[in-house]
Amino acid sequence: MTRDMTSGSPIRRILLFCIPLLIGNLFQQFYNLADSIIVGKFLGVNAFAAVGSTSSLNFLVLGFALGICSGFSIPIAQSFGAHDEKMLRRRVAQAIYLGIAFSLLITLLTYFLTEPVLRLINTPPEIFEDAFRYIFIIFMGAGTSILYNLVSGILRALGDSRTPLFFLIIACIINIALDLLFIGVFGMGVEGAAYATVIAQGLSGLLCIFYIKSHVPVLALSTEDMHPDFRQLGILISAGVPMGLQFSITAIGSITLQGAVNGLGADAVASVSAAQKIQLIVTAPLETLGIAMATFCGQNLGARKPERIRKGVGAITKVSMLYCVLAFLLNYFGSTVLAQLFLSGASQKIYDGIHLFLVINSAAYPMLAIIYIYRNSLQGLGFSSSAMLAGVTELAARLIAAFIFAVNFEFLGVCFANPLAWLFADIFLLTLYAFKIRKLHARLSAESESEQIAEDKSAQPA
Prior knowledge:
Elements: H1 10-43, H2 45-53, H3 55-81, H4 85-120, H5 125-140, H6 142-157, H7 162-185, H8 190-215, H9 230-262, H10 266-282, H11 284-302, H12 306-339, H13 348-362, H14 365-380, H15 384-409, H16 411-415, H17 417-459
């Protein structure tokens, strides 16, 4: 079901759009966490740490894939908001070509670079082999991740956040079943978890394709639509690549920090890995609001409604601040219970590390909320390249944390890395948004005024 977000109450439209999107995001997180939970329960702390130690590298590569797919959906959302179905289909066709090209490129690069990068970030020897086997299989199946994120991104650009959720739930169930089968029954170790993820992800993407072919006639592509269009390819790349690089730049900082964590030993790796996985679940509503804002802003830009964009951004910012209070309380009082989802038989030192990391980070969640909302809003408005620079400020902050904080304050320094990065990014993003929205409002108002003058002149009798 498509959803037009250019009319009605902005906050109501956004929150209704968010409900299935949030459920989908939580399932996406659980989908990713299922491997870690089952690995931790069946294979022990070291295997859990091995899978967790690859999270930053995973985010570097598959985060880039997610970013480019999200970026491709923004021009598509703008075409939908402008009710230009011909351009909508043409952009979808070009996005398919780009998805195939990036799948091949990512697979080729990771085939040669995975092992050297794991060694570069000081992956502890006792978990290196498991870490390599797990992440190598995930990377060889990167095309399945791009397939799902591309097709679900196209559906969300049309305002349909429910259909991708439905197929994601099916894939999540299959992933868990395959995890239990491959690890618990066949004894395949961490490789079984990786194969389960790739298979389930590919299936969810294929199901989305079958749905589009039978239920979304506006996306029925003709031979003419499929002709290569270099101008539209350029527009999609200019929207997608900066968003992909945004994820990757952030991930480079995380990888550098992961190297510092690895140097503190397997217990520190386990603590940070578990805490970060809990954080992904707890901050999913904030991330979801950000994703929704990209579609909301993209559609309303296409409809030329800058004041509606302002109103929507302001309202969702207030909602996110309220949620941050709840998230802090959940982390403060529930960190140990949440950690036990992943770990069994862990030492008290690991649980203490998880609690410290989550309390310090959740106190800074309002800064994270601002990143999600304003960065995605800027990207939805077509300022992907400018928004990408916020990632550079995050990278700088994480480098400081890795080379100064972690060295001098060890684990405590690691805990302050994210808040420092979020603070740097906020300063940049809020300044950039204020400038860009004012400029955009002036441009769209001038265009509307010019069109009105032209209409008045044409209406006058000769």
